[in-house]
Structure formats: structure tokens, C-alpha cells
């Protein structure tokens, strides 16, 4: 992010690290570092008090930023692609329909959209099935946009959006026929996974309830180590973020529901997420200069905190050229699509508007989506694309239901 190095392909760089992880980690491993990493991982805990600020740090950056790279449905999760010629919007609608169908949503159902984002799933569910939906979020920006879209669609009578932590929904006041959690469980945290499923269990209809969870998942081989560490995503993109393993999810569902949530089916879509991230990255880079270069961040302090990542004076060395920043002058390759160093003048400009003359952070009013921010998000998309492409991460769709729920049975087979 500091612009000190550049590579010809960020995704290939991530792949290189993944395939050589054991050797690279062994060279830097020490008990002291491991202990410090574990302690650092606890500062982003997802207690009720912390979770709202963790969520806001990402989702309240500014709607114009997310609108720039998302499709018209404003769906910020893995799409399901029909083929290489598919559009992002069609792939997202296919995914939404898949979740609705797996939940078995019916016209008279009351559905909880657990982590509703900008309202795409709630809108699709109500429009297509004629059901009632409660969407919950901790992002004020998301709630504002979701409610506006719902009103424009004429569905205010069927969809309600609440700004509330899932743990604060009262099971005595709510009973849902179906619950769909679309890439929200990554914000729960390992220690709260049983709490999450206990709350879903208590909110779900005791006979015919169905819970569908889509989640980015860590592979089982690395999960124990991952739980004790802090990576780029935890630190810079999703504070408090945690990608559970599939076994951790299934185990937490059994523990939290006291065995009353049964795994019905499971599917994995890592290739689909890799493609989704590639498309997001392309759209982000294509629209950055047009949309964000002159926009003011909603959460200015989040951008300002990256101001300490000041590039080297030259900011031009590249791994492809076999060096790191040494202070020597060099020229940038304007045609390098995955150039993470940026132009030296861009880096200097970014530093100017995030720091005053004394090197201290400038006032929040002067913050902007600077070049450090652009490089951070470009790396975020590439980092995750490489992780899904190598199956370090998975994209799981898990369906849980009640033990005696015959609504999911196939009458043609049973006769």
C-alpha cells in the first residue's frame, strides 16, 4: 500500500505466496511473534459494543464507493456464474434466487435477512415470493439506501429494515419461518459462533424453520493457525473479520441449537467468488478516477489512518525488475495494469492531503480517497481472488433445518 513495490500480477503474487507459505512462514516464525499476533487478534473482538464500530469501519466508507464496483442490485457477496459470458447482475440475481429456493421461502413466510446490506436479498425475496422480510444491519449507510430502494419498489409494507445487533432481537417478539444469512457470519467471530446459532435457533420456527448460511470459509488445514493470527484482511479491510471453517460452522450450529438444527445440504463455490472478485477489481480500478478521486470519504478517519504508509521517495521499484525501494530514481511503467506503486507524483499528492506540513494527520475535512486507499482496495480484491482460486478460502452455502421438517421432503420420491 505504501507504493514501495509493484508486480506484474497481484493475483499471481498471492498464489506464489500461498504455494510457498510453509517455507516463507518458517523463515519468520518465532514464539514471540506468534504470541503478539494472538494478542493483536483480540483487539477486534465482536462483543455487542465492538461489533457496530467494526462494521461501520468498512460499510460506512461511503455508498458512492461501493456503487462504483457493485452491480445495480448492490449485492456485496459471491455471485453464481452461468459461464464466462454472464453479467455480474445476472450472476448476483441467480445467487439470490438460489438462496431463496434453498430456504424454501413461501408466500406467507416471515423471513429474516440477517445482515441485509443494501437490501438486495430482501427486495428479491419480497418481489418474487410475496413474503414479509425483516432485514437487520449495523451500518447506517446501508440502512438509508435499503429503505430508499424499498420505498421506490413500493414494498415498504412487506420489508422492514432495522439497525440492530442480531443478539438484541427478542425471540419472544419474533418468530421467523426462514432465516438467510448472506456472508454476515464472517463478522461474528470464532468465540461467538455458538451464540450466533443459538440466537438463530431461538428466532426460528420450531417445526418448519430453515436457516441458510452463505459464508467465506477457511480450509480445515489452516484453520487453527488462522484463528490465532491477524492477516491483511483483519487489519485493513474487515476489523473483527473471521472466516470460519465448515466444521466450525456445523459444530457451532449443533452446540448453539442443542442439536436442533440439522445440516440438510452443503455446497462450495470458490471459483465463482474468484471471478466475482476479479470483476469487482476491474470495475473498481476503471471507475476510481471518475468517481472517487474528487469524492469525500464518509468515514474520513479510516482513510487518514493509512496516511502513515508514506511511499519511498522514488516509489518506483518493482519485483519484476528485481528490487525494492532503494531511493534511486526510476520510471514507472504506465501500461502495468497491476502496478501497486502508482506514480511518484500521485503518491506525493496523496501524502499532501492526508498530512499537514508537520507530518501530522490533517483535519478530517481534507481527507480523500487517496492513492494509498486505491492500492489497499486493489490488493484486497487480488488477495481474496488468489485465496479463492487456490481454495485456501471456500464459499459455502449451508442449509440447516429442524429434524422433523417434512416441508423439504420430495413428495414425488416418497409417493
UniProtKB/TrEMBL annotation:
Region (Disordered), start-end ranges: 318-362
A single MF term (Gene Ontology): methyltransferase activity
Alphabetic keyword roster: Lipid metabolism, Methyltransferase, S-adenosyl-L-methionine, Transferase
Keyword check for S-adenosyl-L-methionine: yes
Keyword Glycoprotein among UniProt keywords: no
Ranges of compositional bias, category Acidic residues: 330-339
Listed name of the protein: Cyclopropane-fatty-acyl-phospholipid synthase
GO annotation, biological process: lipid biosynthetic process; methylation
Pfam families the record matches: CMAS (PF02353)
SUPFAM superfamilies xrefs: S-adenosyl-L-methionine-dependent methyltransferases (SSF53335)
